[in-house]
Design a protein that fits this description.
Elements lengths: L6 H19 L31 E4 L4 E4 L8 E9 L2 E10 L7 H15 L4 E9 L5 E9 L7 E10 L2 E9 L3 H4 L1 H9 L8
Antiparallel strand pairs: 1-2, 3-4, 4-8, 5-6, 6-7, 7-8
Length: 199
């Protein structure tokens, strides 16, 4: 300590020097503030749960993909909406099924027709016959008439397509009037259906 420092300042100088010495030796150590936490109160780290198994079933839609666990099945029904006229909303629905029990198109069509006749009370089959899509693929066509209410009579047309183990059912409904006005263009749209061969 310098002898020029007056006696009454020496205690400040000595504490400042001691502080500089301790900072030089222990720069990385921070002083502990407050009471120490008891060991019993310290939070024990829980073991992290194991990661879930990887998802291998990728679902591909038009504008997105999603990975699903094994055992999940695609039951998507696509609905393409058209004009609302003559008190009904016209649309084309496309249902895809991968759990096909037959590779014979006519057998598959018969199964679908029987299923629809049992679901729709008072449903009557007007037509069933083989046909083909615009791309040349074989298809099967069926037309029904049924009364959802006493005042409303609907005609329902279905196209059935089998391709690479998948089955497709296209459906459109009409009134007596719209069957003549909108029917031809909707039927043409249905015949333009083409399965994606790369999916």
């Amino acid at each position: 300590m310098s002898p020029e420092i007056p006696e009454y300042y020496r205690h400040l100088a000595s504490s400042s020097e001691d502080k500089e010495d301790s900072e030089g030796q222990n720069q990385d150590q921070q002083p502990v503030r407050g009471m120490p936490i008891p060991e019993s109160a310290r939070k024990r780290k829980e073991a992290a749960p194991p990661p879930p198994p990887p998802l291998t079933n990728e679902y591909r839609a038009d504008r997105f993909t999603i990975s699903l666990p094994d055992g999940w099945t695609d039951k998507t029904v696509f609905t393409l909406t058209g004009p609302a006229t003559d008190d009904i909303q016209h649309n084309i629905t496309i249902a895809q099924s991968t759990d096909v029990v037959t590779e014979n198109l006519e057998e598959f069509a018969d199964q679908q027709i029987q299923s629809l006749e049992s679901e729709l009370k008072g449903c009557r089959l007007l037509l069933q016959k083989p046909t083909q899509l615009e791309n040349g693929m074989p298809a099967y066509r069926a037309i029904f008439v049924w009364w959802p209410t006493e005042e409303l009579r609907l005609y329902q047309e279905q196209l059935y397509v089998l391709h690479e183990g998948k089955a497709y059912t296209l459906t459109a409904s009409f009134t007596k009037k719209t069957r003549k006005t909108l029917g031809p263009q909707i039927e043409r749209a249905m015949r333009s259906f083409s399965p994606n061969v790369d999916r």
